[in-house]
Each structure stands twice: as structure tokens, then as C-alpha cells.
Amino acid sequence: MAIHRLPAKSALLTSNPPLASRLAILVIGTTAMGGGIALLVWSRLGLTPMDVLHAGVSHATGWTFGSGIILCQLVLATTFVPLRLKPGIGTVAAFAIPAAVADGALTLLPPVDAVPMRVAALAVGGLLFATGVAVYLSAGLGALPRDGLMMAFAGPPGKNPKIRAKRVALTRIAIDTGFIAGGVALLGPANAIHSGALSPGTLLLAAGSGPLIAYLSAKLPGDKPGQVNPSSALKLQR
Asked: What does the DSSP 8-state code read for residue 225?
């Protein structure tokens, strides 16, 4: 699979809403992501695929979980250079806002042991997280390294929205599967299962987040996953 850069004149973005509106969309989306993460942690039924890798790096290095997050994101951010993806205010917001919202929400949520409540938290948290990703990406103000990779390798929008959604979904599933595999390798299979990093909930999130993000993004106005600045657009050809 070869990566080809599109000419700068290939206008993928046909219109841009006012900056104030895009900033509001960014805040709404990243806040939803934080709420979803809090519910997923609260459920204790599975981590997001990226957090499995964060946990693995933390375990392997002996660092804190937060330090594992920073290291992983910094490594992934280096891919922005060869792929010519430009970070923006959305990149910073998607780092900071979800973390702050999740921490705040978890201080307010009481302990929960009832399995039906935990299952509901997993379902709602997963939906809220995927919705938040789709919403903040639609602002077109920059993406997290993980989401930037998804946008780049899914390729530019084509004439068939269904094909676009399928490619976004499959790309996200592949990325999330890689994160889980890397995290489990660093943690060790037994430790990953015992700690809850590898669980049915985690696998469900890996399989369902991509299709849900792709579906929701197709329904939202504004930029879509795979839409990037024309001067840094990428085209994937087999």
C-alpha cells in the first residue's frame, strides 16, 4: 500500500463554519470524550484500546499511568511529520479537556458494584466516547495522533460515502487492535486479564468504536475523518 500526497490545490474542504462555532464544537466533542472515558473507567469492564497500550507502557517502564499516556502520544505524534499532518488547537484540546472532564466526573461518581449498572455504564460510555471523537473531528481544528493516523490512512473522501465510512471503520479497528496487542504484550496476557485491561468490554470497544465513529461522522456537518487540510492531504492507493 503506497501513500501519495495530493496536490495542494485539491480542495477537500468546501466550506468552513465560523471559528467560534468550530471552537464550540471542539469543546462539546472533547467534553463528551471525557465523560465517556469516565463512565468506561467507572464500569470496570474494560479499557479503551489506547488505554491498554498506556497501561502496558506504564507497566514496562515503571512509570505512572499518566506518564505512559504522555510517552505514547509523543511517539505517535512523530508520525505527523512524515504524513504531513498538522496539529492544531484541537490536538491540544483533545489532550487536556477529556482528561480534566474524566477526572472531575470520577470524583463525583459513587462506587458501583451492581453488574447491570456497570454494563449500562460501559455501553453509554462507549457511545459517548465515539460520539465525542466524531464531533471534535468535525470541527477541523486538529486531531490527536491516534485520530490523525486514522484520518490519514483512511484516505481522502471519495464519491461514495459508504466506501468512505467502511474505510474509516476498518482503519480504526486495525489501529485499536494494534494498541491492544501492544499493551497485552507489555503487560503479559495473564496480567492483562487479571488487571481488566483485556476483557470482553475492551474487545467490544475495539470492534465497535470504528464503525460508530464512521457512522456518526457521516451524519455530522463539517469535516469528516479522512478530511484534512488540502496542502497536507494524503491518498492511499493499493
From this structure: T
Residue 3 pairs in a beta bridge with: 236
Determine the 3-state secondary structure of 107 from DSSP. helix
HSE toward the beta carbon, residue 114, CA cutoff 13 A: 5
Q: At what angle do helices 65-77 and 145-154 cross, to 10 degrees?
A: 40
Amino acid identity of residue 124, one-letter, is V
How many CB atoms are located within 10 Å of the residue 146 CB?
23
Contact yes or no for 45/109 (Cβ under 8 A): no
Mean pLDDT of 168-182: 95
Contact 210, 130 (CB under 8 A): no
**Could you identify the residue written with the cell 468512505?**
164
Separation between Cα atoms, residue 94 and residue 110, nearest integer Å: 26
Q: Which residue has the cell 499511568?
A: 65
Q: In whole angstroms, what is the distance from residue 225 CA to residue 90 CA?
A: 14
Q: Residue 140 pLDDT > 70, yes or no?
A: yes
Of 138, 150, 184, nearest to 27 by C-alpha is 138
pTM for the model stands at 0.80
Provide the 8-state DSSP code for 111.
P
226 conformational bin, left if phi > 0, alpha if psi -120 to 50, beta if neither? left
Where are any strands of DSSP class E within the chain? 2-5, 234-237
Q: Exposed/middle/buried for 70, CB within 10 Å: 0-12, 13-18, 19+?
A: middle
